[in-house]
Amino acid sequence: MSRTLYDKLVDAHKVCDLPDGDMLIYVDFHIMNEYTSPQAFSGLDTKGLDVWRPEAHLAVVDHVNATRSSEPHDAASKLLIDNLEANCTKHGIAFYGLGDPRQGIEHVVVPEQGLVTPGMLIACGDSHTTTYGAYGALGFGIGTSEVEHVLATQTLRYKRMKSMRVMIDGATAPGVTAKDIIMKVVQVVGAGGANGYAVEFAGSAVRDLDMAGRMTVCNMAVELGARAALIAADDITERALQGHPHSGQFEFKNENWASDSEAVFDKEFTISGTDIEPLITWGTSPDQSVPITANVPISSDYLTPEAKAALGRSLQYMGLSEGQSAQSIKIDTAFIGSCTNSRIEDLREAAKILEGRHVATGVEAIVVPGSAMTRLKAEAEGLRAIFEAAGFEWRPEAGCSMCLAMNDDIAMDGERVASSTNRNFEGRQGRGARTHLMSPAMVAAAAVAGHLADVRDFK
Amino acid sequence: MKDKQMTKTINGIAAPLPLANVDTDVIMPKRFLITITREGLGDGTFADLRFDTAGGQRQEFVLNKAPWTQASILVVGDNFGCGSSREHAVWGLRQLGIDACIGTSFAGIFYDNARKNGLALPVVSPATRDALLQFANDARAGEILIDLEKRTISAGKLSEPFEMDDATQTSLIRGRDDTLDSLDYAGAIRDFEARLNNEMRIRVFK
User: Fold this and answer.
1) Which of A311, A282, A312 is nearest to A183 (CA)?
2) What does the annotation say about its assembly with partners (chain A) (predicted)?
3) What CATH number does the domain containing B122 carry?
4) Tens digits of per-residue pLDDT, A192-248?
């Protein structure tokens, strides 16, 4: 019988069915951070449980740490970081802490270390764990109680989801990136459109992406509600597996990690790659986006009173007017970073725009490389020099930083940020902060222009 | 500690919260996340909606108005609980006294986190949700009753079915500890591991 890639991954990891309708699935690899794991470890202590298989876990500090220095910026964040290290020491779990040359944002670190291969099942207490679908691996975010469960049993209780395929055929135009592709998908499918689904991305526009681009696509699939995102493994995937510290140590060759040609999906979407334009979000949900050449929506674009009210609420929070042109939106801050867009490929794209140009007066521009290794590579390639010459602040340490403002990078009330991150929620980058999501190259363009700008105008 | 008391019904005053895409950043702002315990999160729940920047109550927010200050049920907009995986959002709702959120759709991680903490998330049709919103909007309407066993919601003259998968229903009613229960299957987990060849056993360098 024909099966989807998702079904193959679930079948390969099913331990047993449970009487209540769930199944137990086996977790090959589990990643932890300092803020969603403390209560899981204390749960083990309370229940007198050990870690089932300590060598199948990795802990990375990334969410709360300052990126200006390798020292925690306050006592509360230090407590979280020290607590994670103590828990890892106690249970014999690998820990990449501040100052470790392998430290960085968990979803940047794992591929860099060669810890993901096709056919694996990876769980992590972070919603953007969908990133690993780029490798044909089943990755998904879990809550802290599930972190405890996987520590104690190496399994999770699981329900098979419905399947969705998003087919994106047709070459994208110059200036259109993986970020624009996934922002387009979120716009079309909607912020909750894939709740209950595992989403496979297919089509020539997806196959043409490099691994960094595929990770960006799968990373933000959670913004349409997908609990898992997948791209079939191919030659590009195989090449990306080579040359990392753990390369060759693991392989899962027990299946062809692609959907069978006759596989049937519960839901299908088709998007033309050729028609995608560079996008920006104007609102407070990731599906509220328009092409950079367009205007902010107007009330009559919406049919129901609820939708009109939602538009008004978003515009009020964002400090925008109906019908305002996207390029008239002036910014205070430009931020390049996050698990979505802080890889070396992202920094190269932004640097191309910045070379020989300078950030506009009054704009604060920050770049936080995704990992210590990414930073060193970027510095060796001369990217740091380009960013700094353009007036960007180059952060010496890696972490999530202003993507979710859990460290000391907090945008002020009313501050408007052009951001290469994944969520434009109210308060995400600071109470009252206004986030516009876009590709890293578009952030660079906005930083130079002082307002949201079309990257295609920066030849 | 395996078996807690059975919860077959949930009843209480329901507050209307019709906004769509209420994310876990809004439910639990990040400044409340710098903690290593599950406690003390009640004040953080919806903090930016409940309180102004000076810490004063925002009178216009529904949970600050009688009778909804006593609400134990929320009737919510589409895609409630989207965004970050933070279970703190669910812990905070429970500590605020919320036993159930009724809506048309919930984000997956939030749904699973809710189950682990005894927060019921009945899924209803848009028409039922709208009727319940209308009911909840009426300060004199009275309580809503959620029957977990029968999978029905009663509100005044209204009685409507809701969806909830069997495992979540069982878990909510029985209040079991999933981690301890799953260890009953330790043998099956070991059998599965025995079938993995050497290359399928990840070992992370320290």
Assistant:
1) A282
2) Heterodimer of LeuC and LeuD.
3) 3.20.19.10
4) 999 999 999 999 999 999 999 999 999 999 999 999 999 999 999 999 999 999 999
- How far is Cα A90 from Cα A113, in angstroms, rounded to an integer? 23
Q: Are strands A94-96 and A228-230 parallel, antiparallel or unpaired?
A: unpaired
B108: nearest CB among A53, A227, A406: A227
**Cβ separation B167–A79 shorter than 8 A:** no
Q: Is the pLDDT of residue A183 over 90?
A: yes
Beta strands in A305-360 (DSSP E): 333-336
Residue pLDDT, tens place only, B151-202: 999 999 999 999 999 999 999 999 989 999 999 999 999 999 999 999 999 9
All residues of chain B having their beta carbon less than 8 Å from the beta carbon of residue A77 are 34
3-state DSSP assignment of residue B50:
helix
Q: Which residue has the tokens 């925002």?
A: B58
Strands A197-202 and A228-230: parallel
Is there a domain that residue B21 lies in?
Answer: yes
Looking at residue B183, the DSSP 8-state letter turns out to be: G
Q: The domain containing residue A54 runs over which residues?
A: 5-248+259-268
Q: How far is B59 from chain A (nearest CA, A)?
A: 18
Residue A202, min C-alpha distance to chain B (Å): 23
Closest approach of A388 to chain B, Cα-based (Å): 30
Calculate the alpha carbon distances from A1 to A50, A231, A261 in Å. 40, 21, 11
- Domain span holding position B135: 9-176
- Contact (Cβ atoms closer than 8 angstroms) between residue A282 and residue A318: yes
Interchain proximity B189–A127, CB inside 8 Å: no
What is the rounded distance in angstroms from the CA atom of residue A242 to the CA atom of residue A245? 9
CB contact under 8 A, A148 and B113: no
Backbone CA torsion sign across A228, A435, A452, A350: negative
State mean pLDDT over B18-35: 95
Whether residue A193 sits in one domain with residue A122? yes
Interface pTM, i.e. ipTM: 0.96
Would B136 be classed as within a structural domain?
Answer: yes
The pLDDT-based confidence of B4 (bands split at 50, 70, 90) is: low
Q: Considering the domain boundaries, does residue A273 fall inside one?
A: no
Across the interface, do B179 and A47 touch by the CB < 8 Å criterion? yes
Axis-axis angle for helices B108-116, A144-153 (nearest 10): 70
Per-residue pLDDT reduced to its tens digit, B87-103: 999 999 999 999 999 99
Beta bridge partners of B73: B14, B100
Tokens 């990840």 correspond to what residue?
B202
